[in-house]
Design a protein that fits this description.
Length: 378
């Protein structure tokens, strides 16, 4: 499968102009990497400032965890970012972590191996929340039939809702996220709801779902506001942004210490996300998501633009592998493969055609921005 583009490419990173939300200015630079470069000094501290912030965070978490069984929650997907984060905070900084894994039925075999090795070696307590498969399948089929862009929305929301409920249950005040500036700093502006929006999950499922949902973790806005704004749970930190995080070096260290096993490109620890990135997006949108990842590395100074362009010359997958992945997903979801192929080739439908809490979220964000400006002026 060859995904090419004849559109103009940013002269700084490798983002193409023919993707909605990407704009290339007269200077040849796109809005995405320009925004990332502007945010860099405020979101990533790989030097002495990062060491100071890390020491302060570790001290804060130890104080919060005093007389409690855990200092913080950490998510484990089996991917390199979360695994290295657990290694960094438990083995190097001695924090007592409660590891959380949400199993939505798509774990790759290397991801399962990596989680087991990390948990045993670091002696972490692990809570694995297995989402009812019949309901996962019904929600994912609904999103596919809705033809919306973000097909990872159901998995992402299930993780988000589960995390907040576990924070309440165990009284852990802080969550350590493997999200990091170095490898995922580029974002394409969009106007859709965030994956924390439970109303949107219900709206899409109501339109195309076939069975009632009883156990699928869906968080309402009222529950979200009660947990995060009233109870203040959990505070979210990104400790990898306090280090000179380099994914390749992290993988090497994990291999040496834990017998780490590679699962392929970024986020492919989930078999569904691999299909979404390798097959769905390239065919539906003519977009190769590697461009986001590679452009992030360019912004972080960990890859040259020429090296990124060379990597993009290799197809993201082959026709044979794409067919194999499509058959696997169709069979697992209980869909005829011809229906799945037709859905992939159908036009995109806006998320905004389905109900959500986006308008309320936007008002809350604007209100918070106004409050911050007022506080800053004082």
């Amino acid at each position: 499968m060859i995904v090419g583009t004849n559109a103009r490419i940013c002269t700084v990173c490798v983002m193409p102009e023919d993707v909605e939300g990407v704009e290339i200015g007269p200077d040849g630079q796109c809005n995405c990497c320009k925004d990332a470069f502007a945010r860099s000094p405020h979101e990533w501290w790989p030097g002495e400032e990062g060491e100071r912030r890390m020491a302060s965070l570790v001290a804060t978490l130890r104080e919060e965890g005093r007389d409690k069984p855990y200092d913080a929650l950490v998510g484990l997907s089996g991917g390199v970012d979360s695994a290295y984060l657990a290694h960094l905070m438990a083995a190097k900084h001695g924090l007592r972590l409660l590891a959380v894994h949400v199993d939505a039925g798509w774990n790759s075999e290397p991801a399962v191996h990596n989680i087991e090795k990390l948990v045993r070696s670091l002696d972490l307590d692990l809570v694995t929340c297995v989402v009812e498969w019949d309901e996962v399948r019904d929600v994912q089929r609904a999103f596919l039939r809705a033809n919306v862009l973000n097909q990872d929305f159901p998995q992402d929301h299930a993780f988000f809702a589960t995390l907040l409920r576990l924070a309440r249950k165990h009284g852990v005040r802080s969550f350590l996220s493997g999200v990091n500036f170095a490898s995922e700093n580029l974002h394409i502006p969009h106007d859709g709801p965030s994956s924390s929006d439970g109303k949107h999950v219900r709206a899409v499922h109501k339109a195309y779902g076939e069975k009632p949902l009883h156990a699928y973790p869906i968080m309402t806005m009222a529950e979200y506001l009660w947990t995060t704004r009233v109870r203040g749970l959990p505070k979210r930190y990104r400790p990898l942004d306090f280090t000179n995080y380099d994914k390749e070096a992290a993988q090497e260290e994990l291999r040496a210490v834990y017998g780490w096993r590679d699962y392929g490109p970024k986020h492919s620890e989930s078999r569904f996300t691999k299909f979404y990135q390798d097959v769905y997006l390239p065919r539906k949108l003519r977009f190769d998501k590697r461009r986001l990842h590679l452009s992030s590395l360019i912004v972080a100074g960990q890859l040259t633009r020429d090296a990124a362009l060379e990597e993009l010359r290799v197809p993201i997958t082959t026709e044979k592998q794409a067919e194999r992945d499509t058959r696997f997903v169709a069979k697992k979801l209980g869909m005829p493969i011809d229906e799945l192929k037709a859905l992939i080739d159908a036009p995109i439908v806006s998320h905004n055609l389905f109900d959500s809490d986006k308008a309320l979220t936007d008002r809350l964000l604007k209100g918070r921005a106004v409050m911050r400006r007022l506080i800053t002026r004082k």
